[in-house]
TrEMBL record:
Organism domain of life: Eukaryota
Main location, first listed in the record: nucleus
Higher taxonomy: Eukaryota, Sar, Alveolata, Apicomplexa, Aconoidasida
Pfam families in alphabetical order: Nrap, Nrap_D3, Nrap_D4, Nrap_D5
Protein keywords: Nucleus, RNA-binding
Species the sequence originates in: Babesia ovis
Protein name: Nucleolar RNA associated protein, putative
Ranges of compositional bias, category Basic residues: 1-17
Amino acid sequence: MEDNKRTRKRRNTIKSRHQSDTDTTLVNEVLDSGVIYGRSLPLSRINRLIDSNIKRWSFNPEAGDMVSRLINNLSTCLQGIKTTRITKDILDDPRYASYFQKGFNAHWTDYDYGPPKNVEIVGTASLDIVDVYQPQIDVSIELPQSIFNVKDYLNYRYLNKRNAWLCRLDEDLKGLFKNKRNPLLDGIEGSVESRLCFSKPKVWILLVLQSNTIKYFINIYAHVDESTFKHAAMSPVRNNVRTPTTLVWDDGGDTKGEEPMMCPTPSYNSSIMEDLLKMKLKNRLLIAVQRYHKMVGALTLLRIWAINQGLISEEYKQINGCSLGETLVDAACVSDVQDVHHIDTMWNGLSQEILCLILLHIVESNNYPTDIESFPLFLATLKFIAAMDIEKYAYILGAQKAPLDQNGFPMTLKDLAISGNSKNGEERIEVTQNVKKHVSIPQFYFDKDMTYNILYNMTLTFNEVIYKARQTIEVTRDMASPFLYGQLFDISHDPICHHDIKLLIPISPKLDNFDIWELHQAEYMASRVKQTLEYGLGDRLHHVYFRFNSEGVLMVLIGLNDSIQRMTDLGPQTNSAEAIEFRRFWGKLVETRSFNDGTISECLLWKNILPLENDTTDISTSLQRCAQANLNVRILCILLQLKFKEFEMKNMDLQGVDGSYTNSLRVNNGKPVMYMQMPIVEVDHRLVSDYRRKLMNVYNELNGILRSLQNVPLKVSNVFTCSPEFGYVDMGTYTGHHKLLLELETSTKWPNDKNAIVSIKVALGISILKELKRNHSIISKLTEEGDMEIKYKGIKFDVHILCQRQVQPIIDTVRHFNPDVQKLPTDDLLDTVRYYFRSVHIERCKVVALKAPCFSAAVKLSKAFAADCLLPDMEYICEMLNCFIFGSKDFMTSTTASVYTGFTKFLYLVAHYDWLNNPLVIHEDVANYDVLTYRKQPWSKYFWVSTPEDPYCLVPKMPSTLLSKRFVVQCSNFISQLERRHMAPINLRKYFQNNTRGYNMVIQLDNIYRKLKYSTNNETIQLSVDEARYMIYTFLSALQQRFHSFMEIGYNQLLLGGAYSTSGDLKIYAKINPISCIPTGHPKGIWPQWMLELENIKVYIPNIPSIICHIRDMGYGLVRSIVFT
């Protein structure tokens, strides 16, 4: 009968990290579509994503659409505007003081304000689509040509008149809202709010329509007919601001007594051309969309990708570069708004319109079939962005790129300028060459005339878009990855996961007396910061990105490269020309050193310059105790102090920045403030420490000695490491035993009985110890289980002998475990192989640590955070999740280059991974996703980490499901705290103390690590660190084994393990299981219970006093008190 028994087959399923539909539905849709781009990218899934993020919309007032009615009412109201005269007095109106440029003779001419020519729907709304969650409709008013003179493109005349027209329109709209019968609201069901917005150099009006539960945002812009001004006058070689106002200073040197260098830039001309070509751009888009219907879907995918990469904010109020609160005309309202400046989502210039134009370039410059799908168009656009080189080429929409000359001009424009034989033309080329050295302006022109640069608002920020496109393309090379969909469209960008340090900088104080519009003042400050950091940090800098707001505040996002570990930066040779600049930049920090090859070079010896030790005497959390000086962070701080002396440096974690932080960027004495947001803790990222160097040298010697032993029954074939100190730097100097695993030669004479195996191990251990003492004078001890304790050159080792005949069947069972046909191995069997699997895990950590030196410190921070969260048995989960982050490409698209970003990604991974459905797969060299087809069993651990040697995660000890879910919530909450800490600094001690509130009982233990003594009533026993740790862990093991179903236990594993010592008692926190307190008719646990009898009915409930007495007896001499909270 047994041979005829048919095995139960498991249904194969493919689950993605973020599963939204059932497997059956997904498979059916894939079969119906017939197209699949990758394992997680079926066409039907992409189409569902597109459909769920866009809404078809077209202008149709008769159909009852509220937005169409509002736009139609607006057009009617505009035609009824009374003609009035706008005079120069509007420039002096205090409400609009910052909207106009009047610092020199702007040659203002009065004009008539009256009905416009027409109202056009532009932008992506003209393609009959809007966003589902933040529907945005752009409307542009065509201003009458008669209000402009022929040369009003000079000296901000056009922008002044345009902005003045919209300001007067805003006054009229606000007047309509004051009337009881507002013609703008005829037929409108819902509320409408009008706001005047400004982002240099243009004003626009925002109408917010609240209809049902949806907010619609209608942007009202202005444009003019294309023939209003001559396009040739807008050439980039022309400076249409006849009085130069744009200043460029050197990178922090003394400029007293020097004349500023004045440089024109093309941003002013492009801002005018944007209005002149608005209708031409609209028609060009409509023609392309009519030919390529899937362009709309590709644009939607690009927008989702940009949001997830942090390039575009999800919130509408940040899309156009200014917050709703900060753009109110009434200045008094700004101070009342406390959350209008969400600095993590400040503007970088990228908009949906720019993405749409780049997509237009893709379809016009390639001969694609008209029925091409959205995803190939999306991928082609990303590849084009990733391949862009804005330092060498200028790009033309729908045409070939043009190489740039040494002056930063496209070749055709240079020839045109030189052919004029104009002295002014030569001066412009020379001046533009200077500005190219300071500010990198990407050039992407709308047409071959090269007058409108569509990227004029992305100076110094487009490089971030290019970099993230390259990272994404690198990920898409493995289309078979089941996680690719999540990386592209589902895993949202989190600023703390990508940057180490944040800076908030106001407008450069040297530019405060000038109102510069051609290029934002903050962009010149960004250029100065970029040059300083790149020269000063060199390869220690991974990236530097910028964000701006309309008030001139600059945010700098800095990512460090912690793979650089050197303590000395070698500069140029002393007799070279570069040495002068090197000494001028670093000042007195430079030292001149000679080397063995005869060279004499300039050097920076950081160990003599920076303090690299932190005072940890008054620190109460594990996260802070793990903090040591991070060399790269300290170098950055000293660099900012050297090169930005005109600022007062303040740390955001010591003094939070309130909602209206723009006012707080200046202190009382008028000196500007540069706010720095440092990592929550610093940590030493260096992989090689003095202790670990000594440990590895002693281990290598001992390994050679053990493998060379001759007069032993079985020779030593391998020595495996089982302690994290061998794989990576853990908690510094370790005073206990380092665990090793000894593999002997294979033999068929090993017995099968467990007790007999222990006897053989003891005999082999005795023979090994005799050889060590006789030939190498190494004194050691042997335990009853056959384990050896060896002390060699001051370092202690705990050596465990591996019996292959005993463990190999268990190893094979674990490696090829099939829950459908095999029984779950018992804990006793798994205990025999835990040393072996621990050695495999340490070897994996060692490989990752060599590839990514910051892995070590990231694990250190992860363990410290888990310890502060009172998560027991957290060592394995912290190590493997960091192995996944640093060694896998299945998570975020960006690479992890620093300790702090690795730690924040650990938090993000714990908080957002789909632990309920999917295992976290750790690969070897070749990715294998077959494990994702495995079902999660009822006995599976909550943190299911699947490795090639243990697919079902059977061997490692992991926290319980309750504490695991609690840890997920704790990581999510801590991420929220990190995101908000610029508003309110985090008190780590107070924050982690709140983690104890969910527990019912606190067991206080005597801190035997302080004096290493164990006292009873009669005697005091001197202990070693290992003996103290053994006592505490024995008590914990007995507590969990006896009361695991009565209460959950949480504790700081680092503190109870003796990683460091505190002055207070050790504490164990217990959460009583309420289900265990329900009266039942039969005893349901091994803890003491009360039997109550009522009307011949016997019930059992926990005997709490007796349980407390049992706990005291189990920890006799160790337990000081038991307190209920």
